[in-house]
Design goal:
Rossmann fold, alpha/beta, two-stranded antiparallel ribbon, 17 helices, 2 domains
Amino acid sequence: MAKKVARKKTPRKKAATATASNGNGVSETDGKALRLHAEQQYAAELEALAEVDDRQRPPNWKLSPWAVKTYLLGGKLDNGFEVTPKYIGRERLMEIAIATLATDRALLLYGVPGTAKSWVSEHLSAAISGISTLLIQGTAGTDEATLRYGWNYARLLAEGPSEAALVRSPLMDAMSTGRIARVEELTRIPSEVQDTLITILSEKMLPIPELNTEVQAQRGFNVIATANNRDKGVNELSSALLRRFNTVILPVPDGMDEEVQIVERRADQLGRALELPAEKPALEEIRRIVTVFRELRNGVTEDGRTKLKSPSGTLSTAEAISVVSSGLAMAAFYGDGVLKASDLIASLVGAVVKDPVQDQIVWQEYLQTVVKDRDGWKDLYRASREVGA
């Protein structure tokens, strides 16, 4: 019989709205933020690393390359402090990424959706610059002003071009302070706007012709961009721009155990951050979700005996984390707090079936040929039948 999870009633607190600067360009709230920046969430680890880090640091870096790598991959320090891993995967890829940022080459994290590109980018910035919020989110509507600078048009009309009327971009701030700037979803940005980066990355300066001046990049400045070529609506990167980057391709997790570990760790972190009153997700349920994703993604069952059709989506590790997190919420609020197939099925089907026609056929075939007859998976099959999936 499933164990009941006690739900402790606590008085509601009013949401805090007042904000204050912490002196590092980051706003702090009186209450709990829904999602803390990496430098806030892992401040204790960054401080502990800085205390024991006696290795050479590149100009304007908060930590040495050794300490940045330890922060990303985790490890035990000489003083006994345990650093949690932020990236679970190939160590050499992180070494290449960190070494690149110590040179004058920008870093491009490339790969299919859900391979932790944004996650790695944020943590690299936090460890190197102490701030991860110098961010430009690429979209189809991103224009040159977003990358370069804009104007306060009221002051521009009243006073003409001046420093006071200038609206600085995160990239300009990073250049003038010698920090890391992040450009997310570079391939979402229109091609003609992407090439705005060429001058910045080549000449390490940003001209402001209206003021007959320029912003020169200070030592420590660099750019981390993320991009993928699998989603619809992406724009190819020009050869001229690609030459300005050192590209590191982040792959999907190599093995089952590695992917299960990633999903378990992140789902547990999200559950605690959202204060979900549910038990820690059972490892066997996580392994089952990861198995479904890997088999459909690879087009073959884990034992290699049955070929499968693959759905139109990427079925990334990030989506598996989302499925487990949604299942925890269902178990907490509409179940007994223990994660079961019935809690997971709606989110699982939603992750697989992106195209209501073709993907639905893929899912139905997978149910009938794999799920229905697999030992210990009868509950998943019944749950899918119950929701009409």
